[in-house]
Amino acid sequence: MTVLVEGVLRGVGIGSVYALLALGFVIIYKATRVISFAQPALMLAGVVLVSHLASPLGFWGALPVAALLTALLGLGIERGAVRPMIGRPAFVVAIITLGVDVAIRVVVNVFIGLDVRNVHDPWGLSTVVIGDVHIAQRHIAAFLTAALLVGALFAFFRFSRMGLAMRAAADDQEAALAQGVSVGAVFALSWALAGALAAVGGTFAAAGGSFDGTLWLTALVALPVIILGGLDSLPGAVVGGLAVGVAQEVVATYQNDMPWLGGNVSVITPYVLMLLVLLVRPYGLFGTREVERV
Amino acid sequence: MTVATKAPRGRPLLYTSYPREMGLFPTTTRKVAFGVLLAVTAVLPFMLADAELQLLATCCIAAIGAIGLGLVTGYAGQVSLGHAFFLGIGAYTASVISGDPDGRTLGLGVTNILVWLPVAGLVAGLFGVIVAPLATRLRGLYLAIVTLGLVFIGAHIFNEWSSLTGGVGVGRPAPTLEIFGYPLGTTTASATRDQKLFWLMAGLLVVFALAARNLARSRVGRAFTAIRDRDIAAGVIGVNLARYKTIAFAVSSFYAGCAGALLFTVTGFVEPTSFSLLLSVQYIAMVLIGGAGTISGAIAGAFFITLLPRIIRELQAVFPFISTDANEVPNVLQVESILYGVLIIVFLIFEPRGLFGLWVRARNYWKSWPFSY
């Protein structure tokens, strides 16, 4: 039982990271109807920035600065590669972001180099013990940060002027334009937000040890998460992220009892889960069914 | 009534009959160009060194795979990021059929290419049919992500099932190239290994390309383009969406299976980590850079992407700041990866019709010369 509870709690911690990454995807999708395959590169860029800035600024100083810089990178991508493509089929833009991802990751990998890098987080591998359940501090921190950011985001969308503009643009771009909403600013802000979220999420994914260029695969797990939750649902991204995290860690806990599945089957659990959910619900758990007009 | 089958002289684009417009080679120019291409292919092995021939043979195989992806993504409009998975299925089916029965990995010992090539295609096609129900339920980006998931699941199976694949870092021998006891993949008195490889792969490419072109102009191909342009409209005019999407995936996977089976015969070894997302991205790049929705575009794109590492190595002589040492920045590998990304972006923004579009532009320029503006 303790093992299961520990697995679930670990899953919540990792799921918080997925939720942050998935929120970035969903924000971009809602604003621009495009899935950004560039998120892994943005995340990796954010993590590398934190690891380089952490020694002069300290972890808590480096995190916001890195998030800000990654947001700027997101803005740059939006301006340079996505804005010229407005009005073109969504999949073409998605493929462009795939190209952006490949190109940026090469540059970022240069800054990772061959040394062992880490983000200098204050938690390392230390744990908190409640009863006889061990919880890693970095997972608690990830969960709390994610909860804080998710709360702030929902408040932003609910109460602020710009948040209202973003919701309006997501709802109907032309109507929003007619009401004086700057849809271009909405696009830009959504990419910036996604960049910042990717940087924060990535930093918590890298916490507790060293990281290398393969960390970008973590960001790809956000894809099954958003499909699971529904592409255009912010609560879906959070719920999906936690669900995928928990499922992955529970499988990881018990995978040694199922050797016929091969080692490390937990790595592909999110994708299998996604396939199963899609067979039953093609628009994910909370996604809105696309209404086709002819 | 007799149907005019020849174009009026000097007006090659004036079609006077429907069958001629739908023909495999609608103009005399195309027929001549195809004939010249065949002739060049036949004599090329006597003019080029073995290393170049080997590279061109790889290009031909990649082109078969790219045509397959072009059918499902370019013609039928179903974005598939799962091409690497189907290539892997083909590669391992062929390896198992032609593999040594007493070897370290699974093998049936049937080395005839006429057996393992079609079977590899059919097994991959079968997997395509299995995946197709997802494609008929999902659209656009959902489908892209699901097929991306397929690559990860496939990679896991390939990495873990070591009696099939030989395991990570070890791999297994590629299928044996042989037809009724005559070796196609070894040097004999009549021709070197690479000459034979090139002829074989170029021949197969011609067969596969003509078959794909034939499919594209048929009822099935027209259904594909109708689905791509607007699936609801296609459904309204009577195209059975589920059926044709399934066909698109099956045919595309068949091509991928055949390409996968052949791809590793050049190097002689299959390594399970080859079938990663990067391979899928390369094939997407081939189709998009070449020109989506055309067979010749897919072939051009495949040649371009496969030759890219070689082109960069030539560029290195011109731009000496690019290093060949993997520990220095910028090195050849980094430039190559960046170019994949940048080329995809540049082509999609500036010439969405790809290399094929560039060719159309050049052709139109000279056609209307000296009034080309």
UniProtKB/TrEMBL annotation, chain A:
Similarity comment: family membership: Belongs to the binding-protein-dependent transport system permease family. LivHM subfamily.
Compartmental location: Cell membrane
Keyword field contains Transport: yes
Matching Pfam families: BPD_transp_2 (PF02653)
Lineage: superkingdom: Bacteria
Name of the protein: Branched-chain amino acid ABC transporter permease
Membrane topology annotation: Multi-pass membrane protein
InterPro entries to which the protein is assigned, alphabetical: ABC_transp_permease, BCAA_transport_permease
Major localization class: membrane
Keywords: Amino-acid transport, Cell membrane, Membrane, Transmembrane, Transmembrane helix, Transport
Parts of the chain that traverse the membrane: 12-29, 59-77, 89-112, 140-159, 180-207, 236-254, 260-280
From TrEMBL, chain B:
Localization: Cell membrane
InterPro entries on file: ABC_transp_permease (IPR001851), LivM-like (IPR043428)
Record membrane topology: Multi-pass membrane protein
Pfam families, alphabetized: BPD_transp_2 (PF02653)
Annotated TM spans: 32-49, 55-77, 84-101, 113-134, 141-158, 197-216, 247-270, 282-308, 329-350
UniProt keyword list: Cell membrane, Membrane, Transmembrane, Transmembrane helix
Record-given protein name: Branched-chain amino acid ABC transporter permease
